[in-house]
């Protein structure tokens, strides 16, 4: 049996809600950075939102970006210190609503950074409001009758926008099972390798549960991702080494 | 050293490069666009980075990232774009990072127009974004000062780890004057507070410093008090015996200087107090003024009084303070002399 | 102190004439300001620049009244003639400005600069011809000294062209013969 070891980069217990996906993603990211020997080189541009809570528990250098601007902050840093491993860690509201322009333009410039966008279909920190990624019909604090796609638009698939651009790496993973978590780890590793090889913009979007604001048990939330969320957001690698992956 | 004929915007941009600025992220807006254009060619020549951002929001946050990395970084904008910078400026101030901003003022709220104005005084000097911070604000009155104060702004931003602002305007930005440029400087990025990967040390946490500093309220108050005590800059012209003192910064101050000379030729005792630092406001300069001064006249290219507020606070209750405003039109110095003369004769009716 | 405005259509070289005047003045150790027309002033296709030149620091770069006007076209006369001080100088490009009266309390020097520049095979030199007339009329510099300054300026730019000096001196002649 393999040794169970907590990555040294996780310097304190995390502050996420029980069953939150961020804790899993933080751990996977820490493992990848340590395995790649990048723990001392990593600098994270941190979003505002639940993801920002990693400031207490994640032991790399980091910069607290204004809400939505993590990709621009990461850009400024990476241009000055191109040898560092620079990661923009953001939620879906941060990256795809208020920060859509900054996120898209980092991709359009093919900025040599790695973005991790955690898609839980909701604004978690503020208590479960509708996000750009909320599914049609999904009830939230600001769509009490369910998201009406006719008046609020369809869920935003950022990878569909980006894969037509010249970018280095695009993948979407899910946390719904151990197997999928292992895939997420593989994607994050590939996205960071892409950056360290100068491959340009890399994004890993991760479908993640928010049991608290979904009003579900952690188990039910994982089932919901597998059975419902994944029908809207397809999983897999979409761009590798700057080339579109054929479906 | 040889003089060079330069536009205000170009001279400011070259001064930034010579002060060691190696990162610029910005967005075109008249009348500051020449700064952007100049640096797009110039920064790569010295190994620096120029990035045309998708917006001022993008630009200011690129500057935030570059400053966090330890690089001397800058962005520039004007009126509408300056509004958009405020969010990022608040974060940079809150993280106690140095950076330099430039607002080449243009006229009006909303879209306004591209000609010179001094209407952004409050945004610049009060606290344009949310929270508890101030910018060191410098107001050049010439192309040469666009150079000198830009260099000073970078040095002071570093010294206090606080953003600094050059508050210029369309006329100084567009006009040409002979200037003397400083020597080129290189500034080491590896400063103790800069993020660069933890490299075996403690991890750097670039964020609001309130999270880490004990007794933050008194700490941050003391930091800004130090600036108030140590960083007031002004020029005083013929104020010792003046009956009326004009107070004006930037381009207005030059019209005022001409007015002082004209008035003196007519035997009218007019003086000028020119704030060079707008924050901290040079309250100390008022101590040089004739204690018997009859009135202050704040002169600014603005439709509503801004500077007048600071002049009132500095002048105290005893001396009347009025404004000479002019936004759409540049006032003539002779009009200032007439206004000063009428202030003097009005005050005479209450004397003796 | 001399306040002088150069004005004309975009493409007539008024900003360049101003820059030339500014550069030669600077190299001669004078203080100066050069303010371009800007914003709404530029509507209608007429460009201008406004210079103040002195041995002492220039306080106010703006002026309501000018000592001299170089008017490359009719619009420039319409716009600025009334702003010339009494006894001031108007250099009018008579190739583009004809059949009109001028103020009588100013000195008017009419120079067919556009035609002369073609005669001298330097069609872009009309502005320098006008500048020659202005320097002679205002006595800002001795003509030869300024002509040397022009040569030095273009030499620094790597664009030495003896025709520029010729144009300048033709303008000087025109002012002398008025």
Question: H/E element string of chain B?
Answer: EHEHEHEHEEHEHEHEEHEEHEEEHEH
Q: Give the proportion of residues in helices of chain A.
A: 25-40%
Q: What would you call the structural class of chain B? A: alpha/beta
- The radius of gyration computed from the alpha-carbon positions of chain B, rounded to a whole number of angstroms, is 21 Å
How many strand units of chain A?
Answer: 10
N→C terminal distance of chain B: 55 Å
> Counting H and I runs of at least 4 residues, what is the number of helices of chain B?
11
Gyration radius of chain A, in Å: 17 Å
Mean pLDDT figure of chain A: 96
Structural class of chain A: alpha/beta
Proportion of beta-strand residues of chain A = 15-25%
Classified by CATH, the class of the largest domain in chain B is Alpha Beta
Strand content of chain B: 15-25%
CATH-defined superfamily of the largest domain in chain B: Thiamin diphosphate (ThDP)-binding fold, Pyr/PP domains
Could you list the spans of chain B in which at least 5 consecutive residues all have pLDDT below 50?
A: none
Give a short account of the largest sheet of chain B.
8 strands, mixed
